[in-house]
Amino acid sequence: MADDLKSGRIVVVGASLAGLRAAEKLREEGFTGSLTVVGDEPHVPYDRPPLSKQVLLGQATADTTELPVRRNADAEWRLGVRATGVDLTAKRVLLADGESLPYDRLLITTGTRARPWPNPEEAGLAGVFTLRTREDAAGLSERLSAGPERVLVIGAGFTGSEIASACRERGLEVTVAERGPAPLVGALGGTLSKLAAVMHRNHGVDLRTGVTVTALNGNGAFTGAQLSDGSRVEADVCVVALGAVRNVEWLADSGLAADPRGIACDAGCRAFNMYGIVTDDVFVAGDVSRFPHPLFGYQMLSLEHWGNAVEQAEVAAHNMVNPGPLRRPHLAVPVFWSTQFGLNIKSVGVPTYSDHLVIAQGSLEARRLAMVYGFKGRVTAAVTVDMAKSLDYYRHLIETGAPFPPPPGAADRPIAADVPVPSDVPDPSVLSHGPTVALTGHLPDRRLTVV
Length: 451
Known about the structure:
Layout: H1 2-5, E1 9-13, H2 17-28, E2 34-39, E3 76-79, E4 83-87, E5 92-95, E6 100-102, E7 105-108, E8 112-114, H3 120-123, E9 128-129, H4 134-145, E10 150-154, H5 158-169, E11 173-178, H6 185-188, H7 190-202, E12 206-209, E13 213-218, E14 222-227, E15 232-234, E16 237-240, E17 244-246, E18 258-259, E19 262-264, E20 270-272, E21 278-284, E22 289-293, E23 299-301, H8 306-320, E24 335-340, E25 343-349, E26 356-363, E27 368-375, E28 378-385, H9 391-399, E29 421-422, H10 428-431, H11 447-450
Parallel strand pairs: 1-2, 1-7, 2-3, 7-21, 9-16, 10-11, 10-16, 11-12, 19-22
Antiparallel strand pairs: 4-5, 5-6, 8-17, 13-14, 14-15, 18-19, 20-21, 22-23, 24-25, 25-28, 26-27, 26-29, 27-28
Helix pairs in contact: 2-8
Domain FAD/NAD(P)-binding: 9-313
Protein name: FAD-dependent oxidoreductase
Organism: Streptomyces actinomycinicus
């Protein structure tokens, strides 16, 4: 049986960072069968973080962001063709060009796309951008190089904040509209978002919080926007940074546990079907996955992190070609980083899985600090601002389930001096999704009788 797993046909849908690293790992683990990678973009896998950083600053071009290849995956690359469905019974992936690919094992790494502006007519105005693909970055960078009068950024999450930072570095006037009380509040909670707001304003960003954009104006070309507080912003470029949408629509009739929150899988990356039964031949990795993590109460996590995509892809690849007893769980502690307004923000763990936080090192005033998050008396995350060398210490606390507030160690002042405060993380059910533990997102329905 183990030898059978090293041969046969494997199809990877998603020519992404996760797809590439999984393909390489499959060969490394001794897979000798046929390997096909399907991607809807015409490009070989490329790196997305530089798109909102170096490319927008004009320090690199979008076509230089190809990912380094670590080994020859000896795969057939089917690029520029979309997967439209999967037949679990016949074990075939259906493609937009009418062809279908048979598989013995399937890995889904379809990732996410930028959430579009909800009004297609307004989204189609010249000067309105989202930022996700190489083409997006090239078009936006070219437009910024032309020196617009003002750029409007809608949304102050990590991507929106990085775009605003790049615009200010280029000397452009920027208005940021954020529906929350401050930038990054959804990702890092209220305390650090206060520092983020100060940094935006100190760098000359016209930051509007607690408002939504109600309409984009223009006659063919974007000229400005209406805000929910009745004000109007005149601008000639608009970047819509409203987060990501998971690419699961193509699986609507597949019978897999795929919904807007992602595709649910077990800790070994095996996908669940809509009835909560684990499959043994369909695996999932990267941004599109939803998986249980023991360090975070076995909640189903969806992470859009570079490092998570790589580590989960390698676990999935290992498990696809090894028998049950040799399979391993995806246990990596999430790590994330962002550079904006001259600050280097690094995170380990899951800051949103918290009820309290404490500033363990530095201070908000100094703009150099380490903030530790806890949930029910246990350390669950840490975020550093210009203090990345402390991160390993906090990662160890998370991995060992250390008590919260943490003991003095990396701290440069007595922890007792700082009283834990509520982490002020928005209720996820109000933000964008329902209960985080929900397994399949499907209710038993008429399909049961079909089964």
